[in-house]
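Data deposition worksheet. Section B asks for the primary sequence of the deposited chain exactly as it was used as input, without tags or linkers unless they were present during the calculation. Section C holds the resulting structure in token form. Section D is free text for depositor observations; keep each observation to a single sentence. Incomplete worksheets are returned to the depositor.
Section A, Depositor: J.P.
Section B:
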Amino acid sequence: MAATTTTGFSIPMSAPAVSTICADANGRRSISPEAGHALLILDHAIDYLTNEFLREGRMFSTEDAQLQAVHLLMDVNRRIYYECPQLPPLKKRFLAFLYPHAD
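Section C:
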């Protein structure tokens, strides 16, 4: 959200989404081809709507339907991403490779 820091506007997020992002920010995820395709399509839609909004030079408003659509798409994107299983850290994967029977 580079636009929020450069323009000084804040775009509200729900509290549960923020705490989820902070808790799992450092982990890698195993993204299935279906989830990857959905994330790609959502990313293109978010980019398109955001670029159109900025190109038109409209004012930021919480009542704007286009901004609400962007927030909705971002929420769906986040949900799909966080539903993908988290991979263990590299150190754990490496140790599991070296010592396959140690638990």
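Section D:
Residues 29-103 form one domain.
The chain has one domain: 29-103.
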